[in-house]
Design a protein that fits this description.
The complex is a heterodimer. By secondary structure, chain A is of the alpha+beta class. Chain A is built from 17 helices and 35 strands. In chain B, the strands form 4 sheets. Chain B has a 7-stranded antiparallel sheet, sandwiched between helices. In chain B, strands 8-9-10-11 form a 4-stranded mixed sheet. The chains are: A alpha+beta, B alpha+beta. Chains A and B meet through helix 13 of A and helix 1, helix 2, helix 5, helix 6 and helix 7 of B.
Chain lengths: ~700, ~550
């Protein structure tokens, strides 16, 4: 092995493509590639891609000292229902936690809706005697007499995996642990997930769902991860493999095998991590990341270079993009709002003659009409072609021929009643509607988080992000946009800048006035030890950061806000400080406090992580004069709807500091950046494009 | 009109819909009332200069549909537009103007652009307590039920009227929460106003006139087209419900013409002496909601889409209660009106209208006893909600333990036990409670609960369908009635009244099932078998399906 070679490798297995990125110690990309995913055995595609990348960089497996892997396998297993046969075991008298759920319809006016399929049907919902109260005290001992008959019932269901969720186990895991142990003794082949391990938070419905989802993917993921590790080891990989999680951190194979549910949605998390990295490099404190692909757009708020996190996530929604129509899982995630707006989103007219765009998508087959693969329905990409924003000859490096006539025709045929004498006005309408819906989703997400979009800088990537960035930003009140280099392969690059981390959220109800400090300090000590052990296995000897927080609210409210706590044992003297911190954050979000109202705390969290990798900060470069365009194109101005002449630039020829005034298009292999008439672009030292909105004319 | 101008109007319409949703979210997040945060019992809307509603948030409960559209018109007409200044906000909780009981506060704010009023933003939210006898059916008139604030100015040029706030706080058991909720409402109006002005500036408009015409005309036309698909005619129906002192008969006559749909509640029983009477605005909200679930559900609520629906009732009948009738629990009967109007609509659209369901929510408000406090017990107040089954749909089974027509969320056991001294010992679906049919009614649920201490508990009941089951449609059978008792062998309790649950005794609270749809004999063998293997029905009940069984 060449000691100079301390290479790091990221493997992102998506539904269609497997992305590989190989970097050196300085983080410079030595090789990147995209190979088709091999769904039967995804490891095969990954091996092929990695072999290629190593060959391209003239390196060997032995040179690789860091290996990060993210996969959609768990997500897809949940969506496609390819997981194990699961039984649930809940407390006697509570067989119907899944059936009863929230008692709610997710769509107010839809009387014909179906509720989400929560994996375990009622005939596989079993119970066992025993009861704890909310403090974790035993009221009725676990019914050990009946564990054998429970095992027989599990056999009768033909189950491969068991999800155990007993009432109040977040406060005391003893019954769950005892039951799991006895079942494991009786049936050593059963895969068992217990809720106090997977999601130790109060609210039995979400905790059970999370445990069920974990049990459902566990056999599949455990087999896959084993095989993946064995195959790469056989090729000569000597470093440990770390797995990317939905929370934007990395974890060990062992933890991933126990908590496979945390692996869902790691790809999009990689994109947000990359955006956070760019934000740090550019010193952008308040950011909106905007990742627009072919089917969906994902938005994430990033403050202080840290993507916003959440504890809830919904999988396989019955009605796509409708909140509440999926299965809730409670895991640490980077909070992203996902909307059905991408290049392939289809435009239709509703019964009022109003133009609607998405969430239905033409996907990649047949794709937009302009792809000439048989698509006849007008899409966002077709609109962009008609508006002149996509150069038919240069799309996807010229590998895909764009058929403008087909785009025109799809729009005229389907949206005839509003096209008037040309398809341009309808194309303009498609753009306006889809851009407005993305901006609205962003504003709404900000409101729900108690934040404002208008002071933010947008970081746009994905195949369609740079093309729609100015149009969405203007509607969202955002005035500054960054377009990173290689905006098309964001996630895998993001993996390489993610920390090794583990987060635990645990319920323990308390009122601020009568906080049991000794108990709380011991409680935190336990969580910290657990999280540190996990992180140290993945990152031995590295320096760690720890974050402690409390989820606090006024008594009687339903919405909790997260307050950071000092990393030390709390004393009585800290109580006024905790109150002050809560009131500060509360008044930031709600413009006032509520004097005299009790403050209560439901959940406590710890995150242990390796230090963030060093970021080279990039200064902006002074004005280097106007860049010279490659050629010009007629485009439709997104402000006025009028035809204008736009300069067209080739991105790789733009030198730092060169100025591009809108209207202009900046072309690169995977995407095009639209510089609207009211924007000006320039490139910084790192090659990031910076678009700023011109001062409005008065 | 050029088509680009047309899409601009559409974009602005979408923007208005987004603004009201943002307003609604902001309000829910800051709210103190459990019914607001658990059920989204709020409303937010934007109105044009004439007071015509242009957009309304789709929130948790339908009780504010129409109500708000009418309420803002009324509130606006009480004041001289000349006297309105930027930063002013008007308020009322008059049940006959706002939303049917005192707890619902309505705020309205004029929106100024270049010193001219261009429109209004408004919002409604449910406050925790307004004094009087509190939220319960025991008041004998509106004066018993708490503080009524006639239309007045709450905020002048951005400053809250301190005396008014003091009065509201002085007349409440929960003054701090009320103050918090009022601030949330004020912020909601202001946010809406700020966003509306932002939109006006972004799109360089002078006023909302063109946009308003476009929204209202498009929606009216779409709604009339949807109504044209319903056969014309006059359809009558009656629904018997438990009531309080005596059973109540609800009557409706629904007339469908090319001009719209009208409902007349003539013939319905007179008011009750208890607070279950319903002001017409609330009865209208639920009736029109039910109709719009089937007729044009995809058209947003606004003055145009609501205009073709008319609801009338003779003054003094229980669905058009007049002051000073008590109305605190108007939802108990008000939420039964969808079943009533579906009885009419199903005659016109037999293949689209579901069977009757549990309909009224089964709330279970629990308090400590007065003497428990004296002896050092815990003071608490719990508002638990559990739902029954919905009626079977024309092509699918009803939903078990699911709210309809309201949108309330059920209460999770662990949260309940963490905040109050109760122990829930069972919460499961009630076998055989769904009405048999080609499609089965949704099942009710069974809750068992005891005091977690040695103190008694007080339960304030106001539920219906204890005596009157949800009926099936087209040959479908009725669902099970609700049943409430203390101890397995205890007598069945009536649905309204205060109950004392002695420590160590178990409250058994069973919610009703929904009615079935179509002849049970036509139910597929697979569906019967699945219901049996899932224990949703017993062998005995399965026999009712034409001899289909486990075999």
């Amino acid at each position: 092995m060449n000691p100079q070679h301390k290479l790091r490798l990221a493997v992102d297995i998506g539904g269609t493509f497997t992305d590989i990125v190989l970097v050196d110690t300085a983080g410079r990309a030595l090789a990147t590639n995209k190979t088709p995913t091999t769904p039967e055995n995804p490891t095969i595609g990954a091996l092929a891609g990695v072999d290629q990348a190593l060959a391209d960089a003239n390196a060997e497996f032995d040179d690789v000292t860091g290996f990060i892997h993210g996969t959609t396998l768990a997500t897809n297993a949940l969506i496609e229902r390819r997981g194990a046969r699961v039984v649930s075991v809940t407390t006697k008298g509570f067989r119907d936690i899944l059936e009863i759920a929230y008692e709610r319809r997710y769509s107010q006016y839809d009387i014909n809706l179906s509720k989400p399929d929560l994996i375990v049907s009622r005939d596989r919902c079993l119970t066992i005697g025993g009861r704890l109260n909310a403090k974790g005290e035993e009221l009725i001992p676990l019914d050990v007499e009946n564990v054998e008959s429970l095992a027989a019932q599990i056999d009768a269901c033909g189950a491969e995996a068991v999800a155990i969720c007993l009432l109040h186990s977040y406060a005391n895991p003893a019954h769950e642990q005892e039951l799991a142990k006895q079942l494991a003794d009786l049936r050593p082949d059963l895969v068992i997930s217990i809720s106090s391990d997977i999601s130790p938070e109060a609210r039995e419905f979400e905790r059970l769902c999370t445990t069920v989802a974990n049990a459902y993917v566990q056999p599949l993921m455990s087999q896959y991860l084993d095989d993946f590790a064995v195959q790469f080891k056989a090729r000569g990989l000597s470093c440990p493999i770390l797995m990317m999680t939905a929370g934007g951190g990395m974890t060990t194979l062992d933890t991933a095998t126990r908590h496979p549910i945390r692996l869902v949605e790691s790809g999009p998390a990689g994109g947000a991590i990359l955006a956070a990295h760019i934000a740090a490099a550019s010193g952008e404190d308040q950011v909106l990341s905007f990742d627009m692909g072919g089917t969906t757009a994902k938005l994430c708020l990033i403050d202080g270079f840290q993507p916003q996190t959440a504890r809830n996530f919904e999988i396989s929604r019955a009605a796509r993009f409708i909140k509440g129509s999926g299965m809730p899982v409670r895991i640490p995630v980077l909070e992203m709002i996902e909307i059905g707006a991408g290049g392939g989103s289809i435009a239709t007219l509703d019964r009022l003659g109003r133009l609607q765009v998405g969430p239905r998508s033409a996907g990649s087959e047949p794709g937009p009409a302009a792809f000439g693969k048989g698509g006849t329905e007008p899409t966002v990409t077709d609109a962009d072609v008609v508006l002149g924003l996509i150069d038919p000859k240069r799309f996807a490096e010229g590998r895909l021929e764009i058929d403008k006539a087909a785009a025109d025709q799809a729009i005229s045929n389907q949206l005839g009643s509003i096209t008037g004498d040309s398809s341009v006005s309808a194309a303009f309408g498609i753009s306006e509607i889809v851009d407005e819906s993305m901006a609205s989703a962003g504003r709404m997400h900000a409101v729900e988080s108690g934040k404002d979009l208008r002071a933010r800088t947008m970081i746009a990537f994905g195949g369609n992000g740079p093309l729609h960035a100015t149009r969405v930003a203007r509607r969202a009140g955002v005035k500054r946009i960054l377009i990173p280099r290689d905006p098309g392969v964001g996630s895998a690059v993001g993996f390489l800048v993610a920390p090794v981390s583990f987060e635990i959220v645990r319920s323990r109800y308390a009122r601020l006035d009568d906080l049991d400090l000794a108990g709380l300090n011991a409680f935190f000590g336990e969580m910290l030890e657990q999280a540190t052990t996990v992180v140290h296995t993945g990152a031995p000897k590295q320096r760690l950061t720890r974050r402690l927080s409390a989820f606090m609210r006024y008594h009687g409210q339903g919405h909790e806000i997260e307050i950071s706590l000092p990393d030390r044992a709390l004393t009585v003297a800290d109580k006024p400080e905790l109150k002050a911190l809560f009131e500060e954050e509360y008044s930031r979000q709600f413009s006032r406090i509520v004097p005299g109202m009790q403050i209560e705390i439901m959940n406590w969290a710890v995150t242990v992580a390796t230090l963030r990798s060093e970021v080279e900060s990039t200064q902006e470069v002074s004005d280097q004069g106007s860049a010279s365009p490659d050629h010009q194109r007629e485009v439709v101005c997104d402000l006025t709807g009028e035809q204008v002449v736009a300069d067209v630039y080739i991105r790789e020829t733009l030198r730092p500091g060169m100025v591009v005034a809108g209207p202009a298009l900046i072309i690169e292999p995977q995407t095009t950046t639209l510089v609207s008439t009211d924007f000006t672009a320039r490139s910084n030292i790192a090659g990031t494009l910076i678009l700023t909105q011109n001062e409005a004319p008065t | 009109m050029t088509s680009i101008a047309n899409t601009r109007l559409q974009v602005m319409w979408n923007r208005l819909l987004a603004i009201v949703e943002e307003q609604g979210q902001a309000l829910i997040r800051a709210a103190f009332s459990p019914i607001v945060r658990e059920c989204g019992d709020i409303s937010a809307g934007i109105f044009d200069f004439q007071g015509r509603m242009l957009a309304q948030a789709v929130t948790g409960t339908p009780g504010h549909i129409n109500t708000m559209a009418e309420a803002v018109k009324t509130l606006r007409s009480r004041f001289d537009l000349q006297d309105m200044r930027p930063g002013d906000i008007y308020l009322t909780n008059d049940p006959w103007i706002a939303s049917g009981h005192l707890n619902d506060f309505l705020l309205m704010m004029p929106v100024f652009h270049h010193d001219q009023i261009i429109g209004f933003t408004a919002c409604t939210s449910h406050l925790v307590d307004l004094g009087g006898q509190g939220m319960g059916p025991e008041g004998t008139d509106i004066y018993d039920e708490g503080l009524l604030i006639p239309p007045c100015k709450l905020v002048s040029g951005g400053e809250i009227e301190p005396l008014l706030m003091d009065i509201i706080k002085a007349n409440s058991r929960e003054p701090v929460a009320n103050e918090g909720d009022i601030y949330a409402l004020v912020a909601c109006c202001e946010t809406g106003s700020e966003r509306l002005i932002g939109m006006i500036e972004e799109f360089r408009l002078q006023d909302l006139c063109d946009l308003s015409e476009y929204i209202i005309e498009t929606s009216r036309r779409g709604t009339l087209e949807a109504i044209a698909a319903v056969p014309n005619g006059v359809f009558s129906s009656t629904l018997q419900v438990d009531g309080s002192e005596r059973p109540i008969e609800l009557c409706a006559k629904l007339e469908v013409s090319n001009k719209g749909i009208s409902i007349d509640f003539d013939g319905s029983s007179r008011c009750s002496g208890k607070g279950i009477n319903v002001p017409l605005n609330y009865a209208t909200a639920y009736s029109v909601f039910a109709l719009r679930c089937i007729v044009g559900p995809d058209i947003p609520n606004n003055a145009g889409s609501l205009e073709p629906f008319k609801v009338v009732a003779p003054e003094g009948c229980i669905l058009n209660a007049q002051p000073p009738a008590p109305v605190a629990m108007r939802h108990t009967i008000g939420q039964m009106t969808p079943d009533l109007v579906y009885g009419c609509l199903s005659q016109a659209l037999p293949d689209l209208v579901p069977a009757e369901g549990a309909s009224c929510m089964y709330d279970l408000p629990l308090r400590n006893t007065a003497e428990a406090i004296l002896s050092g017990g815990t003071q608490f107040a719990l508002e638990l909600v559990y739902n029954g089954g919905t009626g079977a749909r024309p092509k699918a089974d009803g939903l078990s333990a699911t709210a309809f027509p309201s949108g309330v969320w059920g209460s999770q056991v662990e949260m309940t036990e963490a905040v109050a001294p109760v122990l829930i010992t069972k919460r499961e679906l009630r076998q055989d409670s769904g009405g048999a049919g080609t499609y089965r009614g949704g099942l009710g649920q069974r809750i068992e609960m005891v005091s977690a201490t040695n103190e008694d508990l007080l339960l304030f009941l106001s539920v219906d369908r204890i005596d009157n089951a949800a009926r099936g449609r087209q040959g479908g059978k009725s669902g099970a009635t609700g049943r409430i008792r203390i101890g397995r062998d205890g007598p069945d309790l009536p649905g309204k009244g205060t109950v004392r649950i002695p420590a160590c005794e178990t409250l058994i609270f069973e919610t009703p099932g929904g009615g079935g749809f179509g002849d049970p004999a036509d139910r597929s063998r697979d569906a019967v078998r699945r219901d049996l293997s899932h224990d949703l029905i017993s062998d005995c009940h399965a026999a009712g399906y034409n001899g289909k069984s486990r075999a």
